[in-house]
Every structure is written in C-alpha cells, then in structure tokens.
Amino acid sequence: MTLEETIASRQSVRAYQDRPIEEEQLISVLAAANRAPSAGNLQAYEILIVRDADRKNRLVGAALNQEFLAQAPVVLVFCAHPARCAKYGERGRRLYCIQDAAAAVSYAQLAATALGLATCWVGAFDDEKVARILDLPPDLQPVAMLPLGYAAETPQRAARRLLADLVRDLPTLL
Ligand SMILES: Cc1cc2nc3c(=O)[nH]c(=O)nc-3n(C[C@H](O)[C@H](O)[C@H](O)COP(=O)(O)O)c2cc1C
Fold first, then answer.
1. Rounded to the nearest 5°, which phi and psi values hold at 171?
2. Helix H segments across the chain?
3. Which of 6, 37, 72, 113 is the most exposed place for a label (fewest CB within 10 A)?
4. Which of 9, 11, 12, 129, when mutated, tests ligand 1's pocket best, judged by the most ligand atoms within 8 Å of its CB?
5. What is residue 74's three-state secondary structure?
6. Parallel, antiparallel, or unpaired for β 118-119 and 74-80?
7. What is the CATH number of domain 3-166?
8. Measuring from each residue's beta carbon to the nearest atom of ligand 1, which residues come in under 6 Å?
9. How far is the CA of 11 from the centre of ligand 1 (A)?
10. What is the mean pLDDT of residues 22-39?
11. Taking residues 9-22, what's their average pLDDT?
C-alpha cells in the first residue's frame, strides 16, 4: 500500500473481530509511533498496552461505555509525560507533550492501516478513571486510547471539509 492509499483507507472502526493480532504487527505499530516527530525529539509520552478483558471492560466504563474498546484484542493508551519536556517550560508541559502523544497516535493509526488492522482514536474518557484503572503514576496524563484489531464492520467513509474551507489562501492551481 502506498502512503496515499494508506491515508485514504484509514477510517475509524468501531466493531472488531474476536481475533488476536500478531505480535509482529503490534511491534510494527509501536515502532511507527516511535518514529513520530516530537518537540526537541524528547518523545514526551508513554504507551501502555492493555490486553486483559478486565481492564478493557473497565476502560469502556471510563469512556462513555464505548463498548468497541473491549472488543479489540489490544488497546494502546497514549499518555503525555509533561516532565519529559519540562525544559520547554509551561509550553512544553501544557502543549508539546500532548502534541507528541497525538503525533504518535497518528503514526500508529497509519501503520495499523497499512498492516490491514483497524483502529479508532478514542479521546472521550474520564482521565481520572483511566489513570486509576491503569494505575498511572501522577506524571502521566492519558491523551488517547487506540483499540487495535481486525475490523468487523466497513463504515461509511466520513466526509471532510472542502480544502477551500479549511485552508486560507489556497493556491490557485487547486
Ligand atoms: C481527538 C479525537 C478524539 C476522538 N474521540 C473519539 C471517541 O471518543 N470515540 C469515537 O468513536 N471516535 C473518536 N474519534 C474519532 C473521530 O470521531 C473520527 O476520526 C472522525 O469522525 C472522522 O472519521 P474517520 O476517522 O473515519 O475519518 C476521535 C478522534 C480524535 C482525533
């Protein structure tokens, strides 16, 4: 799959097959996340791997009962680590660590797509509940959860804004 094809075929999937993913696939997805850019290359985030049914089910409860989270064989939880980019002061702690984690999520999503896996970025959750369920240290802030597995649905492709609406001063050749 070319990068263009990968980008075009990624979509949020909210139903997963009861089928495990290969360990090599998981490592490829994590390695892609690790290639994402980050402020000062400090990579101010950590990724937790959740596979056990008990914690996945509790994460569902912390995330507005989004049941599909527990269907996926693996849930990756991307957490910002503000202390890692403290050298950038308040901007690093407030913004860069979140951006670092978000960039890693995007890379992971595209890598998963290229491997034939499905994902959905889940951001609607109660931070404190997630931190409790995962026993997170106080310096980790959950940013996104990413269920990873084989799709059990083919959703309608979500529409996008027109480039002309999204981009100021769009080049005239477009
Ligand atoms: C910051 C963020 C938070 C999101 N949170 C959720 C969520 O909690 N639950 C969900 O089902 N989808 C969530 N999504 C996925 C979006 O709904 C989805 O990306 C959007 O509707 C476009 O659809 P597509 O991913 O299929 O292109 C989130 C996406 C982002 C970037």
1. -55, 140
2. 3-9, 23-34, 53-62, 68-71, 89-91, 97-114, 127-133, 163-166
3. 37
4. 12
5. strand
6. unpaired
7. 3.40.109.10
8. 11-12, 14, 66, 120-124, 158
9. 9
10. 98
11. 98
